[in-house]
Amino acid sequence: MKPSSALLDAGAIALSSLCLLHCLALPLLAAALPLMGVWAEAEWVHIVFVAIAAPTTGFALWRAHVQHPLPGLALVSAALGLLLLLAGAAGWPSHEAETPMTVAGSLLLASTHIWNAWRRHRH
């Protein structure tokens, strides 16, 4: 296991977890703290998370695929997770679907990275 690959997977897992925390915890904090409510609804936050998650995920999975080819299910899971994050950040198809889509995308990405780290550790 290469330390840089492990670091990439760990970073991607941390970013997915941060995104999940943002989607689930900040709305609860927003009810108690008006300032957090403004930050939770800021569109730039979603763009920043996606702008960090997409290249990190892409690079981590590309490196993993070069070392040991990934099965199609892992690639589909990562691609679907990224698409859900992108759609959620863009507010498509509706603002109401943003949180469920983003949570599902974060969970798919984190699961794929965890599986990849487990797979790499096993080899």
Structure description:
- By secondary structure, this protein is mostly helical.
- It has one domain.
- It has helices at residues 3-32, 34-40, 43-67, 72-90, 98-122.
- Helix 1 (3-32) crosses helix 2 (34-40) and helix 4 (72-90) packs antiparallel against helix 5.
- The radius of gyration is 15 Å and the shape is elongated.
Quickly describe the structure:
The protein is mostly helical. The protein has 5 helices and no strands. It has helices at residues 3-32, 34-40, 43-67, 72-90, 98-122.
User: What count of helical segments does DSSP give?
Assistant: 5
Largest sheet: none
- Total domains: 1
Number of strands: 0
Shape type? elongated
Distance between the termini: 8 Å
Task: Give the averaged pLDDT, no decimals.
Answer: 81
| Helix proportion range | over 70%
Give the low-confidence spans: none
Gyration radius, rounded: 15 Å
Strand content: under 5%
Order of helices and strands: HHHHH
Structural class: mainly alpha
Protein name: MerC family mercury resistance protein
Pfam family, one: MerC
Transmembrane segments: 12-32, 44-62, 74-93, 99-118
InterPro entries: Mercury-R_MerC
Secondary structure blueprint with pairings:
Layout: H1 3-32, H2 34-40, H3 43-67, H4 72-90, H5 98-122
Task: Identify the notable features of this structure and list them briefly.
single chain, 123 residues, 5 helices, 86% helix, transmembrane helix, transmembrane
